[in-house]
Amino acid sequence: MNIKNVSKFKVENSILIPLILFSIISVISIYCTKDLMGDSYQNYWLKQIIWYIIGFGIAYFMMFLGNKFFYNNAWWFYAIGVIALILVLFIGKEVNNAKCWFQIKYIGSIQPSEFMKVFLIIILSKLIRDFNEQFLNPTVMEEFKFLIKVAIIVLIPSILTFIEPDTGAVMIYFIITFVMLFIGGIRKRWFFFIFIILGTIISCCGILYFVNSDLFIDIFGTSLLYRIDRIVNWSSSSGMQLTNSLIAIGSSGIIGHGFSNTPIYFPEMQTDFIFSVFASNFGLIGAALLILLILFFDITLIHMVSKTTDITDKYTIGGIIAVLLFQQIQNISMTIGLLPIMGITLPFISYGGSSLLSYMLLVGMIFNISNESLRFTN
After folding, report:
1. In which domain, by residue range, is 104 found?
2. How many domains does the chain have?
């Protein structure tokens, strides 16, 4: 293909087509929850269409700016994200004892932690690139100082998000950091030390949780106790949410119950458990095709790493793949009882303006990476 004869804003079909299919599947799945949800949820499928239109508009607009704009202004985006996380603790809307959202009239709820994932990927890409350019063969002490800097940058939003509380987002922050540092070439011994430290902290908390729960509550509060309870007891849990999800999926057979014929209600149908809705309506065949589509999209991104020549973009793709893979595996697994329920959405499929727009910001960066030569060719 002659690059000079192609529009500089053309998007590769291997990226665009799966995204279009994701949008169709998302809207259909959300529509299939309509009959089992209250009146206030009846137009969610229409809202998702609007969010997708806005999201694609943002992703294409980002092609005018280029990824260098975001790398050059990484600290500003990070500062905005941190300020938003602080403000939401004071003026955020409280839902189920969690302050994670800003309520904006005529727009809806905005969740800062969703956008913080994007800002972390941008700032870490810049930091790792700058470090590798400054120190071609860094000493152990130079790496240690760099890791302390990264730890401070990641812990600030992590602590703020944990207080909300949004444990799932905190886990995503850490996974993004580990994967990007690993890709960035940091000595492997540091990961060994980090896992030892984390393992020690988790073990101490676990011992205190089992031995003296009253003291645990005095130190950490009931919120953390409840979150650990959910993780510890998930395998033996028979809660209505998971039970009904398994019934919906298990009863769907090969071809499912049919379009908009979800057999049973379970909480968070349109968000955390959207995979259960789609599987119950379209059966084993539909669920398998969706998983294959997700795998194709992920493999396309992985293949993109080998094609791009910009080292900062490589780190960015690594962070994006880390986010998507973790959320895809966690979300689908928790709907079928393989992993604890953690309130993590299925990227591009679950309902949510903040969630979807954050993914579309990442898509905009993907567009830029895959079409860099096209954008700058007249």
Report:
1. 3-375
2. 1
